Inverse folding.
């Protein structure tokens, strides 16, 4: 309830569903909507998202589990109609994950997946390239991952009250060399002019 300070007394209620999205599409035909389908999602919600044709989210940092072959976040299981992230604002940076959170088994699976060993310094670029190679219509890559920054540049830690949303991109972190590198990757992986599947 709106008057409560926490969600403890909250409950799920059905929203307007198809009617809402029909109105949105009628009034805003160019509107792009992404379904935030991370975490526990019921089959009913998955069916609803599919009926609407909404792209869901894929996060590469979630891919390198024991079930890698079947893991929906692994690039070989991606579909075009999805939005791919190296990580989100609620995850550690790619490098921070590799240095501090990834198990040895996850690191080994990642290296086996790309066919070579990588250091913590190389991991972010390897993950960025993997995101750009994906068939996903849209790849969203946090600047912290493009710059290869570690945990100190993490954007948000859920359930932690202090120290969040403080990271800032500084002008000196951008340079022509980085711009050329990104431009080349976008061209190489056909991201510069990619058209969505639907």
């Amino acid at each position: 309830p709106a008057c409560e300070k926490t969600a403890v007394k909250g409950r799920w209620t059905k929203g307007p569903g198809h009617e809402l999205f029909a109105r949105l599409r009628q009034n805003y035909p160019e509107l792009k909507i992404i379904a935030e389908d991370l975490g526990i999602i019921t089959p009913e919600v998955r069916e609803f998202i599919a009926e609407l044709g909404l792209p869901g989210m894929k996060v590469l940092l979630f891919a390198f589990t024991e079930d890698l072959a079947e893991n929906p976040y692994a690039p070989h299981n991606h579909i075009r109609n999805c939005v791919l992230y190296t990580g989100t604002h609620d995850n550690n940076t790619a490098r921070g994950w590799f240095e501090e959170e990834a198990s040895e088994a996850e690191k080994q699976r990642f290296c086996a997946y790309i066919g070579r060993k990588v250091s913590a310094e190389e991991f972010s670029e390897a993950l960025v390239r993997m995101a750009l190679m994906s068939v996903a219509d849209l790849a969203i890559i946090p600047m912290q991952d493009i710059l290869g920054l570690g945990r100190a540049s993490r954007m948000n830690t859920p359930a932690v009250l202090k120290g969040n949303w403080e990271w800032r991109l500084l002008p000196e972190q951008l340079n022509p060399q980085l711009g050329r590198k990104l431009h080349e990757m976008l061209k190489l992986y056909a991201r510069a002019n990619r058209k969505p599947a639907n």
Observations:
- The chain is about 35% helix and 5% strand.
